[in-house]
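Amino Acid Chain and Its Fold in Token Form
===========================================
What this section holds: a protein sequence and its matching fold, both as plain text.
Structure line: whole-number tokens from a learned vocabulary of local backbone shapes, matched to residues.
Purpose: to set a sequence beside its fold so the mapping can be learned.
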Amino acid sequence: MGKITRLELENFTCFAKLDLEFSNGVNVLIGVSGTGKTHILKVLYVACAITVGEGKDRDYMDKLRGVFSPYGGELQRLCRHPLARDALTGYSITIARDNGHKLAYDSLGNKGFNVWSWSTDDQLSWAEDALESVYIPVKEMLAHAPGFISLNARREIAFEEIYVDVIKQAYLPKLKTLPNPSYEKIFKDLSKAIGGEVILKGEHFFLKTEQGELEFSLLAEGLRKLSLAWLLIQNGSLNPGSILFWDEPEANLNPSLLGLVVETLLELQRQGVQIFLTTHNYVLLKEFDLRKKKDDAVRYISLFREKDADPVSSHSTEEYSAINPNAIAGTFDDLYDQEVKRSLTGA
């Protein structure tokens, strides 16, 4: 187990040059659409996925291809500038972890020719200590799980590998006992929020409540998302020392449940889970500010462009009030100003 401490990207997707240091606890990525929040999660997730299970037989770039799913499988399409995709140029990815190892790739190539080279370390050294991880995508997949794994094994389908991976993790059998009393409380709170427990019949997921069993295809998507978190805690996928990547936890979720989500995430980081998440939601962001305790490790990473055509820049801080720019809070401030103006003018 371990933590990811740093990411450096050059000429990759929307980033000309990016250098981020991460918290051992919660890392919250914010920014308007198109600033690369999900790309950061995916790049880091791939680095974890190649250290465990079937992933240990995969090269980083091969897994990157599966997770990003570029058109035609052409990794050169991940180059920042579209014109560079047809030129003899490339990009670089460097990821560091707390045991001192670095995973570093430089690419050089075009549509028909790609060369990948190690810069500082090799994949065997990187994978000496497993980085157990989970990636929860925006789109909920448990309702579509029946037959999905076997279909993916036999056919070429247009789904990124993150969906295959999370379904496989959801199917894992439950632990006999949870790691500690804190996990018991998290599990109990999530059970109360979803109104029961998740059960499996063949490849079909059901929510079992006092009123009966409801298949996931008839369940509100927000509840499916909480149910997935429930499953991942129950089966040990989110044990202490693991890493959680969660893309927009607020999607399709009632705002009244966001406090529970944030409290769950903060408690998981107290138990040694490193967390990376993206959000567009003011309530979720503010819940972190209000619920965080003195010893909690939360870092806010704002991604932005100075001008529309510029590459993406970043600003990191441990203080909510110091987030700059804060596109989420700015939008809500504008709404508040409009509300005040209307109440004063009567218009």
